[in-house]
């Protein structure tokens, strides 16, 4: 069932991309869809691009590995995209250039700079594409049981055929379709779970009970120096050595590991 759904999705993606072939007549059609794509469709395509393997699998993995501070990564690349729109896309649109290397040559009159920009664009594209294809191969292997290389080849062919045949128009259609599909797949189950939960559970989730005591022996790894306030005497194992701490303020040094016993009061953060 899962394998059939994946195959169906790939076929729909290729068919939607093929729609761009019918409208392709010039180089401008291929590279920038003749600049006739509506703002709504462009916004959907950009959103579909951001809801990618890098966004979900990559950021989720970083959060698991590094903690919630890794959520600044998506903020960073979103901010970079806004800078690109303001400093690159807008001047490039006004110049009439179709590619960044073409824009560099038109602005500065240097074919050497154009070649250098082309190399930079290809390198960046490869660095971005490889993790996406790896994730696609792993995902197809997980859901269908095929060999990893088969998943890589199938996903690579689907992307390559769509772009080679239809260009930017096809890519825009496909990304807009995937945005609508991903939004449905994410929002649908969330809404269904909220309706299934009922008003009481939703109220409990909005105001969960305060976590006041450790339910089991709990190690706490302090990556930064932290001020704590204990509300009761507690024997804490600090870096392997038991230490009896009195109520009041205490300081945990960076990279220290404190192990709180079962039932101990959760300390408060100091000022």
What does this structure look like?
The chain has 271 residues and is α+β, with helices and mostly antiparallel strands. It folds into two domains: 2-203, no CATH class; 218-269, no CATH class. 66% of the residues lie in helices and 12% in strands. The chain is built from eight helices and seven strands; from the N terminus they run H-H-H-H-H-H-H-H-E-E-E-E-E-E-E. The strands form two sheets. A four-stranded antiparallel β-sheet has the order 1-6-3-4, with no helix packed on it. Strand 3 (234-238) and strand 4 (241-245) form a beta hairpin. Helix 1 (2-22) crosses helix 8 and helix 7 (111-144) packs across helix 8. The N and C termini lie far apart (55 Å). The mean pLDDT is 79.
Poorly predicted sequence stretches spanning 5 or more consecutive residues: none
Please give the largest β-sheet. 4 strands, antiparallel
Strand tally, please?
7
Helix content: 55-70%
Query: Rg to the nearest angstrom?
Result: 26 Å
The tally of structural domains comes to: 2
Number of helices: 8
* Class derived from helix and strand content: alpha+beta
Mean of the pLDDT scores? 79
Distance between the terminal alpha carbons, to the nearest Å? 55 Å
Q: Would you list the SSEs in sequence order as H and E?
A: HHHHHHHHEEEEEEE
* Order of the strands making up the biggest sheet: 1-6-3-4
Strand content: 5-15%
Question: Tell me, what's the shape?
Answer: elongated
